[in-house]
Amino acid sequence: MGMGIGWVVIATALAVAGGVSGVLAMRSERPGRAAPLWMALAFLAQLMALSWRGGLRGQCPLADLGEICLFLAWSLTLFYLVTGSTYRLSLLGVFTAPLVVILQVIALLPGSFTGEVQRAEVVDPWRETHAALSVLSYGALALAAVAGVMFFVLNRRLKSRKLGGGLVQGMPSVQRLVEAMARIALVGWLVLTAGIVAGLLMSSDSFSVHLLVATITWVLYAVLLGVHFIRGMPGRHLAFGLTSLFILSLFVFAKL
Amino acid sequence: MQLVCLGLNHETAPVEVRECFALSEAGLDRETELLLAATEVLEGVVLSTCNRTEYYAVLQGGGGSERLENWICEQRDYSGSREGIFYRYESRVAAEHLCRVASGMNSMVLGETEIFGQVKKAYKRSLDVGATKVVLNKLFQKAFGVGKRVRTHTAIQEGATSVAGASVELAEKVCGKLRGSSVMVIGAGEMSRKTARALQSRGASSVMVTNRSFDKAADLAEEIGGRAVPFQGWEEELTHLDVVIAATGAPHFVVKPGHVEAVRRKRKFRPLIMVDIAVPRDIDPKVGEIDEVYLYDIDTLQEMADQARKRREEQLKFCEDIIREEIDKSNLPAVND
Predict the structure, then answer these.
(1) What domain range is B56 assigned to?
(2) Are residues B149 and B6 located together in one domain of the fold?
(3) Residue A40 to chain B, least CA–CA distance (Å)
């Protein structure tokens, strides 16, 4: 595995640095630019690690636990970097970085990456697209869930009038957090839609229960977002919906 | 050549003495010209705000600050006690003092930013009439640089130190930028006016005022460029509001949970911040139990203001370090000589 696994180690160390600098920025009550920078470097290291696995497999590297965790961490980091400016960047890093670290630590556990990799002889492009877009969408949905956790923290502090300290000072406003949660979840849902469409176009013998679960997940997110955008709902309900749906779908996929 | 700062402020002089020395815009020009006409004064800047009057002068030779004080008192026809009223700083101490003033460290509201502009204006006035030369030009430019550095590198101006300011801070924490937001002020007293003004200064575009006496509401609305709303039926406006400020003298709750419950669906459960600055309270605390409502009372606001003041005081040490460092590395004439 050599240098390949080394990139995962480097990416994990960089994500740790991102989390630590985010915490330091929060304590100093001055959101800095260090956390996004560390996360951007972590993103590059993740890319290197993914290209190592992709090179070995000759297809999108989503065949074992290590690859799925790494890909999920990469997509989470990608959406964090792309949509991060919606928030106070460094503080979202405080909430995102730990999740990225956990995913990459799981990937680093012995046995997560299959040692003997068989290079794919035939590649179904729809299957590849389906897998890549599905995991990518989970990155966005994970970030929406992270924003949901941020909302819970902010809401609790504001409701209980614990207004001091860097945590509340550095966070975005309630209104912006609600908008960001919904917007990121919508992006994730749209990517998931494309992933499911790609899944439906796969060769029929490769239809799986995964696709069914992904479709159920898609419907649940559609209902949640539909209610939010059409009827409206308190931010706490949206945050609860996004975090619980994400955890539930992860749990179901893990069981599969 | 000697750099001198002579002045009085809210810490050294009561208001009745400060007003003897306060100068109008026109008076400042004349005072600067007269100051320069005084034989020993080579350069001069006069700063006069509601809380301070200060003379920065470059004197020929040493020991002239006492004569400058006498001259100022004569100009103002001041014959009262001078004991502890004036402060007199020379050379480096005078330069450091100017840096503190420009940074808001010497202001009544610690860290306030208005003083920076006032010092700039005072300097420009003197510059325009040719009352400043090498020493004061360099000194004031340095003080402006230090003022900017202090504000950007410390938290001296962070946090609201007044009830109105704390209300704005909370509103921004809930609604984000207040540009375009709708505000209703219930009650037409002084606190309502201050808070409405503070919200407007941060971009609130639509301000409605309601009061039991419609005339008072109309007066305040006219003053702040808002709209008066009859007290009967004010709750109909709740659908569009982002911020509600309550400051009436009513002995009972004016805003009740039912008022908000009735419009939640229409509001699509948008966050609503309610600030109750009345005693006795105007807003039933149960309103704060509604999911999207963030309710704060006067105690919370006062506590926020106190904490902000404390935090600003804690920053003073860092500000002093910056001033010391900047003056050390500068090569100001009549300061580090």
Answers:
(1) 2-153
(2) yes
(3) 26
